[in-house]
User: Fold these one by one.
Assistant:
Number 1:
Amino acid sequence: MAHNSTSSIPLEKVRIQDEFWSEYIRLVRDVVVPYQWEALNDRVPGAEPSHAIRNLKIAAGEEQGDFYGMVFQDSDVSKWLEAVAYLLDSAPNPDLERVADEVIEIIGKAQQPDGYLNTYFTLKEPGKRWTNLAECHELYCAGHLIEAAVAYAKATGKRRLLDIACKFADHIGTVFGSEPGKLKGYDGHQEIELALMKLYHVTGKDSYLQLCRFFVDQRGMLPHFYEDEFKKRGGTVHFKDLAMSHDLSYSQAHLPVRKQETAEGHAVRLVYMCTGMAELAAETGDAALLEACRKLWTNIVTKRMYITGGIGSMAHGESFTLDYDLPNDTMYAETCASIGLIFFARRMLQLDPRAEYADVMERALYNTVVSGMSKDGKHFFYVNPLEVKPDVCKINKAYAHVKPVRQGWFGCACCPPNIARLLASLGQYIYSFKDDTLYTHLYVGSRIEWETDGQTVNLEQLSDYAWNGNAMFRVNAAKPAKFTLALRIPGWCKGEAVIHIGGYKYTYDPNQVTDGYVKITRLWQDGDVIDISFPMTILRMKGHPSIRQTIGKVAIQRGPFVYCLEEADNGPELHTLQLSERNELTTYFDSGLMGGLQVIQAEAIRTGAEDWGSDLYRSDAISRSKNVTARLIPYFAWANRGVGEMSVWVREST
Amino acid sequence: MAHNSTSSIPLEKVRIQDEFWSEYIRLVRDVVVPYQWEALNDRVPGAEPSHAIRNLKIAAGEEQGDFYGMVFQDSDVSKWLEAVAYLLDSAPNPDLERVADEVIEIIGKAQQPDGYLNTYFTLKEPGKRWTNLAECHELYCAGHLIEAAVAYAKATGKRRLLDIACKFADHIGTVFGSEPGKLKGYDGHQEIELALMKLYHVTGKDSYLQLCRFFVDQRGMLPHFYEDEFKKRGGTVHFKDLAMSHDLSYSQAHLPVRKQETAEGHAVRLVYMCTGMAELAAETGDAALLEACRKLWTNIVTKRMYITGGIGSMAHGESFTLDYDLPNDTMYAETCASIGLIFFARRMLQLDPRAEYADVMERALYNTVVSGMSKDGKHFFYVNPLEVKPDVCKINKAYAHVKPVRQGWFGCACCPPNIARLLASLGQYIYSFKDDTLYTHLYVGSRIEWETDGQTVNLEQLSDYAWNGNAMFRVNAAKPAKFTLALRIPGWCKGEAVIHIGGYKYTYDPNQVTDGYVKITRLWQDGDVIDISFPMTILRMKGHPSIRQTIGKVAIQRGPFVYCLEEADNGPELHTLQLSERNELTTYFDSGLMGGLQVIQAEAIRTGAEDWGSDLYRSDAISRSKNVTARLIPYFAWANRGVGEMSVWVREST
């Protein structure tokens, strides 16, 4: 690690106990991961078969049959194993571990003698390995396998999967590289870069770092590898609808990565790539690469991100479009893309602990990600609209990809296992440290063990941050420990944090605040208690004036949550509601609503059609406006009360 | 003709001389029709070849080669001939007539001995005639041939093309019908219905009426013909992207036409169908059919039409979607669909002279249709957006079909020849009559000869209606003539018409106004002058509150013209402009602007980003708003000053 970076607290040293998040993590453990196991084994009635385990068994010689599924079907098994590993990190589960070990054995048998591992090519297109990197996801699947292997080794101490992954990575290193005779190619869907960095960190083997650097450096270079391989393989195309081999920006291969200044193409690919780049830059101190990460970050968060932390303004290619183009109803804003944005944010935070990174991480986490999964853990959003009119989605094909209710498991489901592995590893996102400074990025109730000042310090966090903006920290240390507690002041509270230490108000100097973190350095005593609270003002958020889809509109935010109007509370035709800058907003906790939600009420005006008549357009319209009370709920909780309209942005009179 | 209907003035009895329209008609005569002739003969440099004349020559045995083009390529030649016929109706042109006669000879030779005529099936799929009505446009092409034939016979008195058409129609009558052994099918793209009615009117042959009735009655009946023929031909599909054989509402075949209450599917198909239905209902007095026409009309104009007279809310299938779903930026609103709406409106007007039909006809004509063609007659809009941001159209695929500039001729260009035939026959849309009442539907400068009260009355109309809302009528009659002049009061003027007769103000009784027409019955003297003028108030139009895309917005209209903001006048980011209900709107004629345009100026507020900073969203935004003068031009004139943003609907503060 380059000396400027912060480090994560190892996952096994973190126990989450949080009013808001524990339930989601429990869902992942008790429902999502077991359910996904059934799905991977084609035992979910009514769901499209996954065939992923079968593919592996066939490749392992244990069963007979043909490959079935997407070219990246293997990655589902790896993501499942990665989530399993994080769960095992948090709590032992011998039954689950045994199942995982069995799968790992099958994976081992499916691995080819030279280390290659991919059931699609092994079973369906033997001899065509590495002939279509632009489209065929071999390196992407390898990356997910490596991530699973690293997580599983950390969690269980077992090296079997790690050995498989290393053998595969070593094989990849014999195929790709700048040396003569090796392919000058790189992955069509970025993932292996960040995975190789993990593998490097866990093994210390420099070749993995070098391979990662090769892939990062090679992307977008001329002559263009995708064009060359396209010609070489005779112009065959795997995905007919997307010109992956030619639309170079789709996989961010239109320019060398250091020259990319705007977030282009498939959103998940971009943020996965940036995650790998940031990790590599952190390790190598490559300033130009770090600068490229910063530029892409800035472009995303200042010009191409939804207020919910969603990214990807169009369905075609699940892609970014251009600055300030943020349609609320035709967008994609894939759950996986927001998860990738969180990965990217975390790596940037590690490089450079600035609250702006954590702010975006929090925005994506508390809104798009948690919205992505239903409270039963079995239904998921892939697309995360900010405005939905269900009957229109059904009929107007411009909205065909937008679903007004969470969907069941897909045959190849990218988002559900991604949610699972993120939430199962949420403990890694709360803190990071550098030397004797502990940065608190997220206010999530938890207990950690941290080695500092020559001893193990236990730090307990009690939080009702989500709804009330409070967190309490308690230090447990055998002897007094000198360290700095750096507490993030979220962007939304505009610096108005109130801190108490041991019950006494703690007034901090502006000099103590660096990049959005209040730093408190002390010789902490066992039992010391630090309270921090943020004013939970209801915020009337506006979009940058260049966003044509939000002008004249307001979005309501309170704490980390963005709010929305739903038909269940407000009736249909949500667009007829208008808020006013002058009207009061009130809030209360409705404990009976979906297990408890902080609700916001607003005096609003509703334009009615009562006196309008049958004309479609008129110049002498008498719009009867009446005063109504609008009710808003947090965005993440939408679509839990039947099919109905939803809208985040509401018209506002000034 | 059923006794309630009005009749058109024959085209050869109408001469248009209008400040606004004459130039467009001249363009059709001098540019569009000659240019299309070059295009049909593949002589337009840089344009995709049409091959339409070559296809006919090959089918006629005059040339060797293969069919090339769309399955409906023949219809381009027919539409051209129809436009030529209307031009010949207005003024002799021996050179043009000679060229047309030559084409007609080729068509005659291409006709098969049994009367069948379609170069696609004759050359490319012989033996597959009538096996794919859902997709393959044979009856559509037949319809256009018939329309051309009827027009050409009327204009020139020559029967050659009419004989060809009758022979083809007779052949179709042997193939389709309720008798045993005949196909129970109907056209996948409606057109032949209205054409058969024209053929019936010109020939008086009842079999054409019966065939039309068969097609109208058969549509949507069960068992479903499209499904049957699909199975019968082994499930082949002609257009892969559209499920024409199965998406029955696409071609309005989801229900018997009398049971259809909403405008569904492909917009052009729907309005062509309605035109035929209305014509049939007028002739037969079929009340249920007329009622179906009224229902579909009402659904379109009160729930599914743009303020510009555009129809078709989505690009996919160029189709209607659902009530009040009128996106301004992703819609299709094809020029041809608005032309079809004008056809439908005219037939409804003939059935039932109500100003509401003429209002819609005028709206479509003065806005979408005339916008469809550039001032050079060589560039055309197929898609007519109400809001355009050119850089977004280039990158965000949700807008890929929206072009910010008029396009050159396509290989198979539907809209340009449709504009040509409509404008060349505009004289048929101005008046209609019943007994001794002459209805004035459009205020277009013209001179007509009308047989009434036992003599030929010449009625001259001088109009500067488009810009100033005035029209003057002068009666020329050898002897006094008793008749009723019914003058339409446009919906936009809210009944505030001022009439002078012989220079004296004429006060009319409310009883004289029927369905939006002031009826003045007199013994008119030679030289009588009637002036009518309408207040050209600048109207602030609002959309029905159920339209989510127009709520909180205003569209400016003056006279028949809907206005728009353009970047050329107002700079980029048009969405940052806001009008106020309280601010004054002024207007002036800018004679230097695109040959002269009435311009509207509005005091407006522009939201600037100067003090905003780099955040994408903020709760403490200081939006600097400054007062600016917005300039609006008529919608039809947009996209003539380079590539730029355009918007019809403007945010409005109340």
Note: The mean pLDDT of chain B is 95.
Number 2:
Amino acid sequence: MSLIRNILNSRSNEDGNFFLNLKEILGYKPKSKSLYIKAFTHRSMNIKDNDGNAINYERLEFVGDAMLSAVIAAYLFEQVPHGDEGYLTKMRSKVVSREHLNELGKELNLIGLVKSKIPKSNFGNNIHGNLFEALVGAIYLDKGYKFCERFIYERVINPHVDIETLEGKVISYKSLLIEWCQKEKNTFDYEVYEDTGRDELKHFSVKLSINNKVVSKARATSKKKAEEKASKRAFFAFQKQIARRT
Amino acid sequence: MSLIRNILNSRSNEDGNFFLNLKEILGYKPKSKSLYIKAFTHRSMNIKDNDGNAINYERLEFVGDAMLSAVIAAYLFEQVPHGDEGYLTKMRSKVVSREHLNELGKELNLIGLVKSKIPKSNFGNNIHGNLFEALVGAIYLDKGYKFCERFIYERVINPHVDIETLEGKVISYKSLLIEWCQKEKNTFDYEVYEDTGRDELKHFSVKLSINNKVVSKARATSKKKAEEKASKRAFFAFQKQIARRT
């Protein structure tokens, strides 16, 4: 423990913002700080505890991966009542794909919190997803399943998981909407502007107008995502009028 | 729901013992009975809900498998501090191996609760493990993670998971003990007798004597298991004297 305390202290001195930034991401104050320090310690730091066990985020990934799988399994079970075991497994693997986890880690800018002896530019792309998994593992071990489940809902399921998209019924709401506008001879316009506001991360806002009337607005971390979000909102507003392609 | 109620009623009439037996296994009274009925309905029954979705245990296996993986991941993380991600993954796959899950299902005689149009003698061996997973899934959905975790500890981890054995440090406590007895010129005797008592399932008891003195007793569902359990108990009693083979 004394070793962990040393690392903790050196961390606070070097990076007073670590726990402040972390609290922003978590939405609560960590109980067991050492777990989160571990979740953001790269193996290149070569730190060991008093028993000689390595302190880095890799073992936490194992726990985080399992918790993501469990929470998403239960979610899909409820949301996709017609899907059999194999279908649910396939859907889950889309949600927790390497690519998607990397996006989630990037979105939270987790790499900004990591402590490493290797320059950050040398990391591969997978570090983002690995840190995200490790963080989920730390949350579970620190605060239990309910908290961890809530974090996964807030950060993964609510903003990113759309059953229709997962089922491959809708590839892109934007293309669906444009197709419909063209068919119906409606004019459309996506007005995009930077809208970072008080966020650290760059954000974009979109106003979607159909026939010169704003029908929906959205905000996200990329132009593409904001447009897709606005299109989806418009889609649900007009869905009785838009023929669904299944 | 009315359909589920019908199945529920027909089930109670045909097999009044279903919920009684279930309560014995669970150690609590189920809240959502329909989940457990689902967990013990084979696809051959060909039952569908009002939306046309199949009612059988297969989808619940997906949830149960995920919960087993999560609970055991967290357990191994704490218990095996020196193991890296890959090592922990390997250990978990031993605990939740098809073979082990089948044993767990058999131990609880879950097949005795299943409703099917196929004669039970025609089922393959995997049905035991599948039912066990489905039951774990039903417990999670009915009572939440904490309850499910407790069930997994009581039925899987406490009676069956031994870190030393999993790590391959000890293959069999019986062979270890016999080896030691022979080396030390101690006599030993495993006295085995049937001891089913009030259980439905056949049980065996073992008295292990070393130098004509009873040193440990154990009871299990097979002779082999009871002997191994008694050996393990003796092993821990004598462990200072027994040289450990790593």
Note: The domain at 173-237 of chain B is CATH 3.30.160.20 (Double Stranded RNA Binding Domain).
